[in-house]
């Protein structure tokens, strides 16, 4: 008779156990699914009025900007953007890049030329961001704007708002 009192409680727990097992199945399936990058499309060349400044370090006289119009967050969760670096001596470097928040990696897609054209980067794969370097603009973008707390911004608007607010 005592066993009959426990039976209803056990029957109530069965759906919970089944649900937990199903959730583990979904989680395991997603973990095993390999990440795949979507093809990056080159953005229009940056315009001066669309450049948003960001701080890297007081250890450099270079000025750093991201073209607000170039920012995108792909279905692969890569934050893509055009960065413009203006050196104290007058040189300007333009490049189209991506940051992968999940892995702390960066990728160079193309170099910009003064005539407003792009050259695709050759053999440019994913590289780890140098988090120990004071001069790493990738680190600044990752930590302060595109991946705060290691979590992706949801969309371009969120990234632009972060850049407009400045360093956290």
Short summary:
This protein has 168 residues and is of the alpha+beta class. Helices cover 30% and strands 25% of the residues.
Element-by-element helix/strand order: HEEEEEEEEHH
Task: Calculate the terminal CA-CA distance, rounded to whole Å.
Answer: 65 Å
Alpha plus pi helix count: 3
Low-confidence stretches: 18-24
Got a strand count? Answer: 8
- Helical fraction equals 25-40%
What top-tier CATH class of the largest domain fits best? Mainly Beta
Overall number of structural domains: 2
CATH architecture of the largest domain: Beta Barrel
- What value does the Rg take, in angstroms? 23 Å
Query: What is the CATH topology descriptor of the largest domain?
Result: Lipocalin
What is the residue-mean pLDDT, rounded to a whole number?
86
Main sheet attributes: strand count, strand direction, barrel closure: 8 strands, antiparallel
Q: Which structural category do the helix and sheet elements fall into?
A: alpha+beta
The global form is globular
Strand percentage lies at 25-35%
What does this structure look like?
This protein folds into two domains: 1-33; 48-165, Beta Barrel (Lipocalin). The relative contact order is 0.14. The longest helix is centred in the first third of the chain and has 31 residues, at 2-32. The radius of gyration is 23 Å and the shape is globular. 30% of the residues lie in helices and 25% in strands. A hairpin with a 5-residue loop joins strand 6 (105-112) and strand 7. Strands 1, 2, 3, 4, 5, 6, 7 and 8 form an eight-stranded antiparallel beta sheet that branches. It contains three helices and eight strands, in the order αββββββββαα. The chain has helices at residues 2-32, 137-146, 156-165, and strands at 51-54, 63-67, 72-73, 78-86, 92-100, 105-112, 118-120, 127-128. The N and C termini lie far apart (65 Å). The chain is α+β, with helices and mostly antiparallel strands and 168 residues long.
């Amino acid at each position: 008779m005592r066993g009959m009192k426990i039976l209803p409680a056990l029957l109530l727990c069965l759906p919970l156990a089944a649900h937990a097992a199903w959730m583990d199945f979904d989680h395991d399936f997603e973990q095993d699914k390999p990440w795949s990058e979507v093809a990056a499309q080159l953005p229009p060349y940056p315009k001066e009025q669309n450049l948003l400044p960001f701080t890297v370090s007081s250890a450099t006289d270079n000025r750093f900007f991201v073209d607000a119009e170039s920012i995108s967050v792909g279905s692969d969760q890569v934050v893509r953007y055009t960065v413009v670096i203006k050196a104290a001596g007058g040189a300007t470097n333009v490049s189209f890049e991506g940051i992968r928040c999940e892995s702390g990696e960066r990728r160079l897609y193309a170099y910009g030329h003064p005539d407003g054209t792009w050259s695709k980067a050759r053999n440019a794969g994913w590289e780890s961001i140098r988090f120990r370097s004071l001069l790493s603009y990738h680190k600044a973008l990752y930590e302060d704007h595109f991946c705060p707390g290691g979590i992706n911004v949801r969309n371009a608007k969120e990234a632009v708002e972060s850049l407009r607010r400045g360093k956290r």
